[in-house]
């Protein structure tokens, strides 16, 4: 239930600021109001939903600063996840990562750029799982979803180079070279902010203090 509502928020089916009533959601997903109520509580803790007295639940409206914070948090957490993956990955993780790099490089060289985004998401999810830390993997997954919600990712100018970098990252993880994996992940995160643009106009600031996106992400762990 929580996943279904979150996916509809991320996809824009429920735009920012729209009301989320238990009755309507229960009807939409064919469930009772109880799981909907629990899902809304979880999504509120993750920062996707806000609740207001007398107004009920609404889709959150992140500010420009909160949106920018998401990319900064990404730049901090992804290198940590890559370093942990180098220390804790399994052969099964490596098999999936290598297979994804091979597919990504083939698609990039063949000009099939429309197929690269799902492969990239799968790569990032697998790398997060390879960290061996459910908490860290959960944070990285939630962060990726929030970025997909707030930003439209521009395709990289040189997708072949992008997948070459991912191949080098997998090589470092396979060798157990945590510092090299961390450095590659950090450089990747540092280069890519220009590939993101806000999906919509968001408020420049809020009167009430909701705290930075770092707090929003961590609160969902």
Automatic annotation (TrEMBL):
Residues 1-62 form the HTH gntR-type domain. GO terms for molecular function: DNA binding; DNA-binding transcription factor activity. It comes from the Bacteria. Gene3D superfamilies: GntR ligand-binding domain-like, Winged helix-like DNA-binding domain superfamily/Winged helix DNA-binding domain. Keywords: DNA-binding, Transcription, Transcription regulation. InterPro entries: GntR_C, TF_FadR/GntR_C, Tscrpt_reg_HTH_GntR, WH-like_DNA-bd_sf, WH_DNA-bd_sf. PANTHER family: GLUCONATE OPERON TRANSCRIPTIONAL REPRESSOR, TRANSCRIPTIONAL REGULATOR, GNTR FAMILY. This is GntR family transcriptional regulator. It comes from Streptomyces telluris.
């Amino acid at each position: 239930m929580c996943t279904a509502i979150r996916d509809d928020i991320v996809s824009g089916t429920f735009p920012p600021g729209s009301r989320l009533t238990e009755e309507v959601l229960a009807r939409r997903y064919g469930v009772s109001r109880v799981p909907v109520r629990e899902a809304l509580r979880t999504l509120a803790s993750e920062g996707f939903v806000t609740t207001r007295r007398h107004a009920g639940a609404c889709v959150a409206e992140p500010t420009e600063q909160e949106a920018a914070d998401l990319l900064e948090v990404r730049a901090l957490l992804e290198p940590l996840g890559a370093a942990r993956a180098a220390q804790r990955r399994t052969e099964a993780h490596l098999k999936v990562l290598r297979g994804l790099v091979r597919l990504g490089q083939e698609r990039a060289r063949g000009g099939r750029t429309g197929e690269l985004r799902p492969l990239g998401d799968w790569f990032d999810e697998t790398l997060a799982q390879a960290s061996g830390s459910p908490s860290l993997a959960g944070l990285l997954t939630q962060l990726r979803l929030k970025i997909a919600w707030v930003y439209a990712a521009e395709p990289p100018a040189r997708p072949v180079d992008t997948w070459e970098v991912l191949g080098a990252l997998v090589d470092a993880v396979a060798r157990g070279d945590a510092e090299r994996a961390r450095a590659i992940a950090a450089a990747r995160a540092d280069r890519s902010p220009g590939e993101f643009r806000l999906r919509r106009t968001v408020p420049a600031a809020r009167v009430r203090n909701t705290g930075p996106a770092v707090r929003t992400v961590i609160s969902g762990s």
